[in-house]
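To whoever picks this up:

The nightly regression suite flagged ABC transporter permease as changed. Nothing in the input moved, so I suspect the structure step. Input below, exactly as stored in the fixture:
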Amino acid sequence: MTDVTAPRALPVDERIDLERRVPGRGGFNGRLLRIELLRVLRNKRTLIFTMLLPVVFYVAFGVPQSGRWPGTNFNPKSYEMISFALYGALAASCAIGASVAVERAQGWSRQLRLTPLTGPAYIGVKVLTALIAAALPVLVVFVIGASTGASMSTGAWPLTFVLSWLAGGLFASLGLFVGYLVPSENAMQILGPGISLLAFAGGIFYPLAVMSHTMQNVASFTPMWGLSQIARYPLLGGSFNVMWLVSGVVWIGLFAAGAVWRFRSDTSRV
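Regenerated output under the current build:
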């Protein structure tokens, strides 16, 4: 008769060791960030496009400006410089965020699910990568603006640069959300015209002060209204509206939460 021995139960300590442990910071690490940055730098088409488009817009609409707009007392070239630098950072960060649509199609996001990397940590790596890349179009537009007549106070230059960079770069969460929401072939088709429409409605391309009262009310409910106002505040001055900050935090938070939700839903099939 065959002697059948019951399997030995593992001690508690050994069973714990077999479980997948989530490392500190949810798996966020410098190596993953480096990999993401190298992937962005290799994509020369996206880099050239996101730097060239805001420069073309500024040269076409900002450089010809002279004097003052009706009812304003600031340099219009500086206004346009900040606006198109912000738009460049916005386009770059959204494009990098939306690249997850391609990663999904290639199975990369499902592969990541096999690792201890958490959703928030992955979103954090993507947003930080987008922030670094978003600094490039801002720098290029500011350099061209300074050489073509844009002027403001000495202290306003670094402030508007940093604020334009951060305000645009944080919209990587929008690109991530759309990238996880739609198929890879539709992500940029939706984001391209979408961010242009939101930029116009939010007062990035044209001063809200010269818009109708109705358009100003509509703009205040758009995602880019608050952060664009903050980016131009050092130039425009006046009283700071706390609702600008509230609007920016709420919209960015919603996009980030949506991106984490879609990441978890997309990879839960592994």
